[in-house]
Amino acid sequence: MTDRDDAPVVGIDLGTTNSLVAHWVDGAPQIVRDAGGHPVHVPSAVSYLPDGTYVVGQAAVERAAMAPAETVLSVKRLMGQGLADLRPEVRGHFACELVEVDRQRVDVKVGEATYSPQEVSAQILGELKRRTEAVLGPVQDAVITVPAYFDDSQRQATRTAGKLAGWNVLRIINEPTAASLAYGLGDKHTDGVIAVYDLGGGTFDLSLLRVQAGTFRVLATCGDTFLGGDDVDRLLVDVALKSLAEKGLPTADPRLKARLRAAAERAKIALSTEATTVMRLREPTLGVNLELELSRADLHTLMDPLLERTLELCQQALTTAELTVEQVDELVLVGGSTRTPYVHERVGAFFGRAPHVGLDPDQVVAQGAAAQAGILAGHTSDLLLLDVIPLSLGIETYGGGVTKLIMANSAIPTQTTEEYSTPKDNVTAIDLHVLQGERELVADCRSLARFKLRIPPMPAGMPQVEVTFLVDADGILHVSALEKRSGAEASIEVTPVHGLTEEEIDTIMADSITHALEDVRVHQLIDLRNESATVIRATQRTLKAEGAKLTPEQRTAITEAAATLEALCKHEDNQAIKAALEELNKQAEPLAELVLNRVAQDSLSGKRLDEIEVS
Amino acid sequence: MIEETDNPGDCNTCGVQREIPYLCEACGVLTREPARLDHFARMGLPRTFNLDREQLETAYLKLSRLLHPDRRVREGAAVQTKAMVLSARLNEAYTTLKDDIARAEHLLALAGGPSADDDKRTPPGFLLEQLELREAAEEATDAAALEALQAKVVPAANAARARVAELLTGSCFPDKELCAALRLELNALRYWTSLTTELEQKLAALSA
Question: Which residues share a beta bridge with A110?
Fold first, then answer.
């Protein structure tokens, strides 16, 4: 551990529409900013070019209007899902072709190439990594957030995406939980119950937490992975399409749909401040010239069913946590869709209090994830997050039923023990099928894993196989079994039933890792060269102004170190440049001290040589 | 580190008297777990049905802070694994003790009483009554009918709960006769609880 104490750790908010990175620094989370001071923020979009390369982020968003079928937006909606899991409107959201691989994986097809959602997400995470490393230098460790209601296969898919992008994923945590961590850190007197209402582009979550002296305990979490602000945009698009259809105009063109979506989003934002707005779209090639007047009341009518559904889930979470609305001390709103004033109004009315403002709803999730990264890297011991398992785990019984083993909202790590026997003589294996979900039937739950317990042959009913199901702090299930009569540990075969296979992961890794390594090295080289040039310039300038006060030996040492560094910068040996840069900084220390003594200002203490302006 | 001793009493590392059999609360060192530790002892709580809820919460939070694997990231993989297992067992203990029925079942099991699988009996006439109530619940289509049923079922469930509490208040180490009586009440209570939940769900579905 010790050699990595100072290595940066980050939190990543991998959003449906936007992704953001924060890092843990000096005991607090901070959004990673580039040299220009702008947050490292990447729209969650990837566009595939005909030459086989791809662009990520803003460039991909811009390309979406021109080449919708080659651009993947909102890939998060595909993570860990089968085609049957996707509602028609979600499927309709994708202008690119979707190909089902298995019940829990849908790939996107662009031209002749197909990409798994894990790969597409990895391309976004890879871009975040490159841009983060350009600022912080090499970074490995990351906590990535997911909606609280993501099931195991969606979490695994996210973990895999992180791994493919070269991150060491410390943990997958829930977005609202992360938000509450950031919120609790921002304000030291927050003991009490916090409700985090998280309405993003494509998902809704509500989490209730009890905060007590730095320990954040999740009491309940509820949500819907198919409920979000995008639904409002979609409803607005439908209104516009209906109006076009009435005029006998074409409505099926994917480019038109993409542009309508953008127009709908603009109209929605305009209605936050204006009482009425006009949704406009001109597309002369299709003969479309849309001017649709919308009032704020129209928008509210569209939003009402969606908000009612979220408030039902709020009530459900309160019931689970055995709390009343009055016992909630603070309401925190997270996610871009909560910017709409009407959301503040309705949610505030439900909880009987004004939402806490003062944190940027777009940044809190990444900040909270960075805080958890700080905890997991051992950088802070003041904080602790006690999380829960979002969905129940159960086991298949006779007739396709499911018996719950671990209930949703149980604190993790957790375990439970069950005893099994055999219905017939000399049975040597018991099959167990673990499922995830709240429903009663196998068909309605998600298959998580199948286990085979091997036992010594015995008469029917004689074996007493004690099976322990343990869910660790990462939410991963471990199973162990003991046959009590013989004392034999039952061997367990695990068949993972979803996601990319290990071989697929290895292949993708092998394809991308060489490029990734090269990329990191090149970025590092550019950074090192820039920094070296700055330090050399500053040293030479200061040496000219203040050098007379140094000994001749000191002057020579500085000049030589600068010359060595300058020479090495012409080559590509990162390690050598780094060492020479450190050497120059070391040799220039007496010079820095001189300057500091002369300027004698407290505010300058701790600054590096290249940061000091010499008059 | 993990101390290789199950010596009760003083902590070998810091010398402070230990209250929890597998953990020194003063220095945080984990020790070997005694075999077959019950949920009360695991949480350092008295073995009683009438558990003080606040005492349970306080103990849970305190032990969670000491045992959670995220607090031991600098102590190496072995300690972290041990902490993870202890933390999982703590959560199992907390979940059991928090719930009246689960706590009663645990006390019954500790006394060597029969499990629900061993002894499925219910009081005479009970199943017939349940069958009728269930049919009524299935046939009820409006809120008024469901609420009328609730007015019957909820007090009955509470009364059964009270009888369990009463049986366990006298002794937390029930004898064979008491165990049998307790089993009978707990079996009945299962039916009452599932009926209560079903009525709540039907009412919630109606209002939605």
Answer: A113
Domain that holds residue A451: 393-500
Total Cβ atoms within 10 A of residue A431: 10
3-state secondary structure of A427: coil
- pLDDT (tens digit, 9 = 90+) per residue, B35-89? 889 999 999 999 999 999 999 999 999 999 999 999 998 888 899 999 999 999 9
Q: Could you tell me if A144 and A160 lie in one domain?
A: yes
Q: Tell me whether residue A141 is one of the annotated catalytic residues.
A: no
With a CB cutoff of 8 Å and minimum separation 6, the contacts of A291 are A278, A279, A280
Taking CB atoms and an 8 Å limit, are A473 and B85 in contact across chains? no
User: Quick check: B64 and A384 CB within 8 A?
Assistant: yes
Out of A272-276, B12-16, B178-182, pick the least confident. Answer: B12-16
Residues A322 and A275 in one domain: no
Same domain, A366 and A402: no
Q: pLDDT of A46-104, one tens digit each? A: 999 988 889 999 999 999 888 889 999 989 989 988 888 888 877 877 888 899 888 78
- The average pLDDT across A502-524 equals 59
**Are residues A314 and A360 both part of a single domain?**
yes
Question: Do A258 and A402 sit in the same domain of this protein?
Answer: no
Say if residues A151 and A79 touch (Cβ distance below 8 Å). Answer: no
CB contact under 8 Å between B91 and A385, yes or no, is: no
Cα nearest neighbour of A409 on chain B: B95
> CATH number, domain at A13?
3.30.420.40
Q: Give the CATH number, domain containing residue A238.
A: 3.90.640.10
CB pairs below 8 Å between A and B: how many? 60
| Statement to judge: residues A55 and A137 lie in one domain | yes
Hey, which residues does A479 pair with through a beta bridge?
A: A469
**A389 reaches B (C-beta below 8 A):** no
Dist. CA A62–CA A45, nearest whole Å: 10
Task: Write out pLDDT tens, residues A234-267.
Answer: 888 888 888 888 877 777 777 787 788 888 888 8
Q: Which of A359, A386, A413 is the last residue of a domain?
A: A386
pLDDT tens-place string over residues A179-226: 989 887 765 556 899 999 999 877 888 999 999 888 999 999 888 877
Domains, chain B, in order of start with CATH, read 2-98 (1.10.287.110), 114-207 (1.20.1280)
Pick A386's closest partner by Cβ from B68, B89, B208: B68
Considering A13, A119, A224, A233, which one is annotated as catalytic? A13
CA dihedral B72, B76, B77, B82 (to 10 degrees): -50
Tokens read off for B118: 């061993």
Interface contact B64-A471, CB threshold 8 A: no
Comparing alpha-carbon positions, the chain A residue that sits nearest to B69 is: A473
Task: Enter the DSSP assignment of A1.
Answer: -
Mean pLDDT for all residues in chain B:
87
Could you give the 3-state DSSP secondary structure of residue A471?
strand
Q: Which of B137, B134, B30 is nearest to B85 (CA)?
A: B30
Residues A48, A179 share a domain: yes
CB of A125 within 8 Å of a chain B CB? The answer is no
- Final residue of a domain: which of A251, A282, A303? A303
Which CATH number fits the domain that encloses residue A465?
A: 2.60.34.10
User: Cα–Cα distance between A417 and A469 in angstroms, integer?
Assistant: 6
Binary contact (B95, A412; C-beta < 8 A): no
State the first-to-last Cα distance of chain A, in angstroms, to the nearest integer.
44
CA distance A532 to A612: 15
Known active-site residue A607: no
| Tokens standing for residue A180 | 């509450």
Sequence-ordered list of residues with C-beta below 8 angstroms from that of A155, at least 6 positions apart, any chain: A80, A146, A172, A475
Residue A231 bears catalytic tag: no
CB proximity A413 to B under 8 Å: yes
> Are A306 and A165 contacting, i.e. CB atoms less than 8 angstroms apart?
no
Same domain, A118 and A169: yes
